[in-house]
Amino acid sequence: MKRREFLLYATCGLSFCIRPGLVKSKAMDNDDITLFLCGDVMTGRGIDQVLPYPSDPRLYESYVRDASQYVEIAEQANGPIPKPVDFAYIWGDALNEMARADARIINLETSVTTSNEYEGGKGINYRMHPKNIPAISAAGIDCCVLANNHVLDWGHEGLAETLNTLSKAHIKTSGAGNNLAEAQAPAVLEIGGKGRVLVFSFGLESSGIPSYWAAKADRPGVNLLDDLSTATVRQISKQVLAVKRAGDIVVASIHWGGNWGYPVPSEHQQFAHQLIDNAAVDIIHGHSSHHFKGIEVYKDKPVIYGCGDFLNDYEGIEGYEHYRDDLALMYFVRMAPDTGKLVRMIMAPRQIRRFRSNRVAEEDVFWVQHVLNREGKPFAAGVEVTTDKRLLLRW
Fold it and tell me: Could you list the residue range(s) of the whole structural domain that residue 149 is in?
């Protein structure tokens, strides 16, 4: 088959300018809360195959029947991967920076299960073996948002095992559950001496989530929104205000939109603004696109419309190179709990190479800067490169 055909099928603040090796950040010296956010972490399929406990590699895709083929394609592109890798391998030296945040939140876009109850209508089914969960724990992840289009790839049995595995690993979740109440409930992150972060997770059909995956009062599933209407905002507002206390930071993590394309739909922007205006939300954490999108700061609240992928198994698959989906961003968002306002946002560019997060070349930092400035222009937001080749948001 053609390489482009293959891809079309296969891809479905920290306040510092400090040198690596220092153990403290300015965020640790005050009452502000610094969150690490990123987009899709897809540790299933090819990545799962190089971890210590690979799942059954059988796939049910039209073109690929064995997950190890994704490993072979990546190795052809960038060289051998030392199988099996240790659990921390996939994060590379990004671990040092992540450790400086007060909490770490990711969109875990895979089922964590040994279930063979594959979702036949989807075509692409991501799973990671439960014994590989230390690969998530190794990064000190505090919360996995799960309202996405891969968490039910291996059925209700797979979802139940995913929730159970994450719970046993002491990793909080939001956006999926054994019933609607669980799926709608926020993850509550206690930040010692500083306050709480409440993480709500929502999904939309536009991201590829089947409508029948929606959780019901008596059925497992994801927290799937019917639409982006004012009525939906009112519903979310009730949920937030039922648990939010003074000084809490509320994150609305939303899986929305397609995989490719920079434009931000007007309804996404309107919905984000309404969540901030009327639902007491402080941070919009958007994801689904395989590349990062523009950033807005609305009423001193950060709106990340698309974080882009952080880890995936797409190496060596051609077709959308102009988006540079091999480049990823670490978002460090520093918030003031007393006001709920953004203090600073720093982004650290990374490159996905050999199924690992790596440092980027200097020219790639400036490429990312160019794209973020171009896409942020409609929102009056841009970035400047710091002395240590990170990106500081200006608005």
Answer: 3-394
